[in-house]
Amino acid sequence: MVKQRHNSQSGLPEIWRRLKKDKAAVISMFVLLAIILVAVLAPLIAPYGYEVQDKKHPMEGSSRAHLLGTDRLGRDILSRLLYGARYSLAMGFIATAISAVLGIILGSVAGYYGGRIDNLIMRFLDIYQGIPMILLTVTLAAVLGPSLRNAIIALGVGFVPGTARLMRASILTVREKEYIEAAKSVNARDAYNIIKHIIPNAIAPVIVSITMGIGNCIMAGAQLSFVGLGVQAPIPEWGAMISDARNYMRGNPTLALYPGICIMLTVLAFNLLGDGLRDAMDPRLKN
Amino acid sequence: MAPLLEVEHLKKYFRAGGDRQLHAVDDISFTLEAGKTLGVVGESGCGKTTLGRTIVHLIEPTEGTIRFEGEDISNPSKKDLRRLRENMQIIFQDPYSSLDPRMSVSQSIMEPLLLQGKLSKAECREETLKLMKVVGLAEDYENAYPHELDGGRRQRIVVARALALKPKFIVCDEPVSALDVSIQAQILNLMLDLQEERNIAYLFVTHDLSVVKYISDDIMVMYMGHMVEKAPSGLLFENPMHPYTQALLSAIPVPSIHNRKKRIIMQGEITSPINPKPGCRFAARCRYAAPDCAQAQQLEEVERGHFVSCCRCHEIKKAQAYQTN
């Protein structure tokens, strides 16, 4: 073997260094940054308010006044898309955060302690997963009333079993590794073992799944809005916009196309970034 | 002076559902002097790994006493265990899975020192570099990750880690069986050198007879949790008494076309280690089995330091001598 210098580091700088090599992930990151920026700055860059109606020009194609045209109520599509980024991203991030926190806690507890606790948690999640998510959300929306907040809660809770299952499986494999025993044999305490060895080795797939989960949540949120259980008019969530446009699909397909492209781009970017992160976080795939 | 390690009637039973018990280690006794090596050989599943892990308390023993430097450590308190583990270390079989893939070489070696908390960070690093030198790892590898290194180098990291706390006793759980033969010798020589320098005692668990012959002072042969024979290394190879040991030794390949040995092929099935009957556990596969073998076997010292657990070993030996003459 050729003698070589090993200057590798660990931690975030190292992950960043390796992530930089993945072009798709870097591009995705810029796309996402742009979308987030747009969401934050929407009131500044949008030419109109999202509910402002140009009553003389409903359902028009692109023009100088309305770059992407107007919808049936004469609202500027571009402005609505820019504002829509706020609601779609909020849905994605908050719902994913809820599912990540609950899922990681439940999964870690089930995986680390095992036995009866594991059985209890996992069987509960099994039953829970047996109920179709859309039904669950319908029920929740019926009880709490359809709104952005309730859609987020429904989505967040809906994605818990997936995260929990992944975390548990990941912890189970790591827990049995010899290096955990090796650490015990040099007097490592349980807490040290969990924080220093088990979680760092178990978390990578979960982080990846969370990143991709944001995309999924946006998608599921769009679905909810599409069936009228999520964001309510006149708030311009992308899924709700497609839902609005579905009656005019034949006459004016761009109405559904633009928000569709937005959703696709965002979800794709999250997925590619997640892919890149998975590779970057695994030291075995280095260089 | 008391020997470094004394193990008496050590038993480890695992529950195997209901009142079924798997007798992994059953009534093992031995002593180990400082700076000596006891080799433990036997086939897969005979309990040799469990024995090693029980002694360093990665598994709690079911019964029996373990004394370390005269002190009873069968049921140590948490505090005692922490102190003990600085004196007893374990080297695992597979250097691919016994190193945290997310820790660099120096982090892995440093971990025991940091956990011990006696040295400052800078001192730990210095000590780590020293240890790397001792086990023959170039300083360049300090920041490398285990997956970047070959099996031999990884095992050197594991050895350095085990040495970090300056233990007096190391359980080596098949430390070379995952390595290439050429690298096995390097690691074995390293371990022998370290033993000489630091007066470390090894409990060397392996299924490889040529390795055990090379490294051990005493050899213990295990069969299904029982110790069937124990003797000084040379004596065991010269004069194996137990039929199982004889069969085992006959399986060593001889690198010569002229000196053909007759290999003893064992017949029959391995009996289950779950709730075993009293008596010799090898009887079901033994060519010399007799009704007496169903009774509990006593350990007999046939010559100085040579213990055999077979009621028929003298008869067998005589018959064999008659055959060859």
Question: Could you walk me through the main structural features you see in this protein, from its secondary elements to its overall organization?
Answer:
The complex is a heterodimer of chains A (287) and B (325). Chain A has 287 residues and is mainly alpha-helical. Chain A has one domain (41-46, 66-285): MetI-like fold (Orthogonal Bundle), CATH 1.10.3720. Chain A has helices at 12-19, 23-45, 77-113, 115-130, 133-144, 148-158, 160-175, 178-185, 190-226, 238-245, 254-281. Chain A is elongated, with a radius of gyration of 23 Å. Chain B has a domain at 239-325. Chain B contains ten helices and twelve strands. Chain B has helices at 48-55, 78-87, 105-116, 121-134, 151-163, 181-198, 209-215, 233-238, 243-250, 313-324; strands spanning 5-15, 21-32, 37-41, 63-68, 71-72, 88-91, 169-173, 201-206, 218-223, 226-232, 300-303, 306-308. In chain B, helix 3 (105-116) crosses helix 4 (121-134), helix 3 (105-116) runs parallel beside helix 5 and helix 4 packs across helix 5. The chains are: A mainly alpha (287), B alpha/beta (325). The A-B interface holds A 1, 3-10, 177-179, 181-188, 192, 197, 200-201, 283-284, 286 and B 56, 58, 81-82, 85-86, 89-90, 92-94, 97-104, 107, 111-112, 115-116, 138, 140-145, 147-148, 150, 158, 161, 164-165.
What's the helix and strand layout?
The complex is a heterodimer of chains A (287) and B (325).
Chain A: H1 12-19, H2 23-45, H3 77-113, H4 115-130, H5 133-144, H6 148-158, H7 160-175, H8 178-185, H9 190-226, H10 238-245, H11 254-281
Helix pairs in contact in A: 1-11, 2-3, 2-11, 3-4, 3-6, 3-7, 3-9, 3-11, 5-6, 6-9, 7-9, 8-9, 9-10, 9-11, 10-11
Chain B: E1 5-15, E2 21-32, E3 37-41, H1 48-55, E4 63-68, E5 71-72, H2 78-87, E6 88-91, H3 105-116, H4 121-134, H5 151-163, E7 169-173, H6 181-198, E8 201-206, H7 209-215, E9 218-223, E10 226-232, H8 233-238, H9 243-250, E11 300-303, E12 306-308, H10 313-324
